[in-house]
């Protein structure tokens, strides 16, 4: 941690941005590959919120970075024992720590924790050793121990006593024993080869039941604390009449292997210990009992005093204790006894499912997040051992996420593909952790991830062209229709606003549009004789930043117009031209499209039939119109009119007699977005025929691109 801040500070002083980036990447790699473990110690039984360490000072981290990077401490296990103050950088104990409660069967008590930083993600290991204080006195299993000793016992005979137990460790644990003054016994203690401490009475003077049939001794156990603590027990010696045989076990040590979680209802037989005594009567009757056996073992196992059968009466847990050691005492009716040892090895069974602990979660990510974006960090542990404790993680279903293992059974949940909120707005990710046991156990954890919207969709009109009508002399601000556009985004990114598009060179249209709902209004009364139709362009834009927009106007990609022109001579003559208009993306493909799609002229089509019918009608009415023609000539002479331009006839039936001498086909191509509303032809361009399409009979062909 301190290396990270030193490197960043060095980069800032140097002013070299490239070097700073390289140093930062190097630092992140070093931090992720294995940071130094922070080690602290704390006496047990300290008050809550006791000071443990100044993390900010030890790591060299500025206090401002603790809150900015969301620094936090996570203890291993289910209970969080420490608290990190982001404002001061001080690590404190949340509660008073009892070493004997936290680490009941360990000489050393080390609590592991990790400190997490975000932006960028960083993890630092730490450990706190809880130091023992002398807060427990030695305790004997029984306040009174009764020994029955035959009066014929020889000098130097040893008699086992129950050892005291002290929950403290080290110098604070049990150190020595003392025996009250008496003329017959001394005290001896030691450690067996298997590490078990023993305590014995040693006979120093011959017993005489007739002189003294019972002795009471005070046994004291003292620890090494300052000040020392002690515990006492009464030892009552009952002197027995002569019994010359003691019970003898068939084995000194009984070794048993037993699987954990054995069924209790069957009272599984662990072992049967057997001791024999050749004496007769009560002196040969043997009774069994536990001695020098821990309280926990007495709770787990039951010993039949008569048969010597040992059965399981409570659940064995491999994770709690891997073995149990017991001592069985066989006593005959005359008070003589012998000991044997019973060692039970607990075999691990896959009885613990993996545990998933979520450390960090980003509940919402934008849909444009790049692949391999970290979404969550979690750890997996299994309290079993061997293959039963090995785990693997997977994601259920075909989702755009993957798992990346880091270290110490930590995994990162990352994206592995592009996200699209419009297709999937949220993901319910099921993470399955499975162990490698023969009967595999698994645990599932559901992680909900919301996909936040990004303005990546423009509004779409429900129609390409909207046709609306209104009668002339309408009232002002008359609503004539509505345009509708939808946006697949969400929130303000989907809020659509409408606006008219101004076109250069054209008058402002006599309409307006409601920006919120797309209602179209006529601003003032219209005159059919002046304006029969007009077009407007509406743009729909969403509320994103920047907004995505979609225009509302598109015409058909191909248009075909037939133009008829005639003069006012007597008889009137006329000609036609076919105009093919193609909308292309660019002029590079204009001639190609014209040559492929332009239709050939059809001089004998329906238009010719209409013209022939018109000529027949004109012939029939020739006499009636002759007088009108003379009158019209006279009037024109008076006005001095000598020449008139040809005009288009209102209908095809007004054509005068005469045949159409020639028709032309013009091909015109407009690029998308063309706004010019007129085009002119000064003369036909005869040589411009597309290859493969010769002109029809009596037809001239010209291709024009605009």
UniProtKB/TrEMBL annotation:
Location within or outside the cell: Membrane
Membrane topology, from the record: Single-pass membrane protein
One GO process term, biological-process aspect: homophilic cell adhesion via plasma membrane adhesion molecules
A Pfam entry, by short name: Cadherin
Record-level Gene Ontology MF annotations: calcium ion binding
Annotated transmembrane regions: 609-632
Coiled-coil parts of chain: none
Superkingdom: Eukaryota
Residues spanning the signal sequence: 1-35
Domain Cadherin: 78-140, 141-249, 250-356, 357-461, 462-601
Name by which UniProt lists this protein: PCDBF protein
Main localization category: membrane
Keywords, sorted A to Z: Calcium, Cell adhesion, Glycoprotein, Membrane, Repeat, Signal, Transmembrane, Transmembrane helix
Any single GO CC term annotated in Swiss-Prot or TrEMBL for this entry: plasma membrane
SUPFAM superfamilies membership: Cadherin-like (SSF49313)
Organism, as annotated: Leiothrix lutea (Red-billed leiothrix)
């Amino acid at each position: 941690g301190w290396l990270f801040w030193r490197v960043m500070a060095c980069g800032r002083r140097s002013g070299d941005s490239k070097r700073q980036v390289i140093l930062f990447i190097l630092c992140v790699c070093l931090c992720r590959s294995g940071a130094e473990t922070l080690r602290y110690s704390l006496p047990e039984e300290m008050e809550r919120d006791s000071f443990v360490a100044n993390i900010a000072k030890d790591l060299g981290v500025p206090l401002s970075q603790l809150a900015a990077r969301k620094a936090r401490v996570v203890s291993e296990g289910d209970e969080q024992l420490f608290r990190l103050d982001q404002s001061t950088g001080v690590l404190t104990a949340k509660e008073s720590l009892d070493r004997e409660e936290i680490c009941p069967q360990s000489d050393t008590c080390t609590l592991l924790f990790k400190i997490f930083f975000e932006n960028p993600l960083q993890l630092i290991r730490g450990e706190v050793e809880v130091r023992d204080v002398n807060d427990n006195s030695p305790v004997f299993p029984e306040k009174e121990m009764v020994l029955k000793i035959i009066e014929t016992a020889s000098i130097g005979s040893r008699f086992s006593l129950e050892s005291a137990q002290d929950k403290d460790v080290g110098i604070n644990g049990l150190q020595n024993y003392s025996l009250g003054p008496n003329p017959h016994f001394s005290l001896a203690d030691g450690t067996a080869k298997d590490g078990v401490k023993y305590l014995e009475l040693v006979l120093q003077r011959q017993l005489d039941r007739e002189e003294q049939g019972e002795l009471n001794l005070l046994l004291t156990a003292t620890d090494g604390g300052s000040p020392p603590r002690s515990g006492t027990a009464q030892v009552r010696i009952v002197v027995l009449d002569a019994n010359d045989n003691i019970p003898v076990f068939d084995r000194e040590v009984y070794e048993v292997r037993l699987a954990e979680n054995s069924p209790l209802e069957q009272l599984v037989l662990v072992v049967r210990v057997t001791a024999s005594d050749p004496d007769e009567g009560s002196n040969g009757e043997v009774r069994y009992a536990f001695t020098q056996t821990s309280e926990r073992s007495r709770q787990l196992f039951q010993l039949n005093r008569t048969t010597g059968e040992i059965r399981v009466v409570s659940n064995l847990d491999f994770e709690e204790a891997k073995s149990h050691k017991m001592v069985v005492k066989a006593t005959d009716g005359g008070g003589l006894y012998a000991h044997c040892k019973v060692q039970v090895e607990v075999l691990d069974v896959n009885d613990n499912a993996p545990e998933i602990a979520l450390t960090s979660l980003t509940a919402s990510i934008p849909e444009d997040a790049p692949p391999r974006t970290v979404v969550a960090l979690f750890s997996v542990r299994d309290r079993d051992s061997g293959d039963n404790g090995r785990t693997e993680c997977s994601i259920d279903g075909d989702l755009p996420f993957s798992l990346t293992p880091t270290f110490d059974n930590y995994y990162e949940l990352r994206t592995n593909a592009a996200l699209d909120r419009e297709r999937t707005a949220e993901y319910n990710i099921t993470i399955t952790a499975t162990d490698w046991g023969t009967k595999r156990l698994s645990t599932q954890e559901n992680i909900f991830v919301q996909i936040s919207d990004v303005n990546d969709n423009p509004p779409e009109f429900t129609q390409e062209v909207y046709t609306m009508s209104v009668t002339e002399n309408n009232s002002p601000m008359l609503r004539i229709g509505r345009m509708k556009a939808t946006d697949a985004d969400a929130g303000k990114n989907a809020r659509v606003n409408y606006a008219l598009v101004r076109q250069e060179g054209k008058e402002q249209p006599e309409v307006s549009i409601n920006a919120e709902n797309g209602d179209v209004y006529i601003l003032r009364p219209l005159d059919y004789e002046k304006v029969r139709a007009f077009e407007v362009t509406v743009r729909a834009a969403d509320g994103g930043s920047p907004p995505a927009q979609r225009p509302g106007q598109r015409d058909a990609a191909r248009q075909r117009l037939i133009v008829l022109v005639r003069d006012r001579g007597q008889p009137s003559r006329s000609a036609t031209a076919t105009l093919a208009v193609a909308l292309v993306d660019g002029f590079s493909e204009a001639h190609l499209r014209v040559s492929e799609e332009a239709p050939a002229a059809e001089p004998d089509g329906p238009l010719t039939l209409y013209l022939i019918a018109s000529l027949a009608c004109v012939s029939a009415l020739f006499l009636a119109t002759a007088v009108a023609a003379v009158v019209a000539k006279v009037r024109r002479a008076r006005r001095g009119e000598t020449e008139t331009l040809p005009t288009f006839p209102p209908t095809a039936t007004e054509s005068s007699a005469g045949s159409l001498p020639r028709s032309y086909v013009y091909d015109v191509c407009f690029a998308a977005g063309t706004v010019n509303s007129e085009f002119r032809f000064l003369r036909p361009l005869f040589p411009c025929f597309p290859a493969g399409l010769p002109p029809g009979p009596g037809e001239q062909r010209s291709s024009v691109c605009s």
